[in-house]
Amino acid sequence: MNEKNIKDILRENGLLExxxxxxxxxxxxxxxxxxxxxxxxxxxxxxxxxLGTLRWPK
Length: 58
Fold this sequence. Notes:
By secondary structure, the protein is an alpha+beta fold. It is built from 1 helix and 5 strands, in the order H-E-E-E-E-E. It has one helix at 3-12, and strands at 16-17, 23-24, 31-35, 40-44, 50-55. The strands form 2 sheets. The chain has a 3-stranded antiparallel beta sheet, with no helix packed on it. The chain has a two-stranded antiparallel sheet with strand order 1-2. It starts with a helix and ends with a strand. 3% of the residues are buried. The model has no long low-confidence stretch (mean pLDDT 90).
């Protein structure tokens, strides 16, 4: 399998891809903090640890 096929499978199974290229499960997301001026959103878990950055509509 090539990388594109693996990414497609992960997206089909409901995982979110961060700007950094990591995949995270929506189950562990506790907080989404949008920064609309920058077009991003910071994603944090229940312990307030940063999980990654998502693209967010401006």
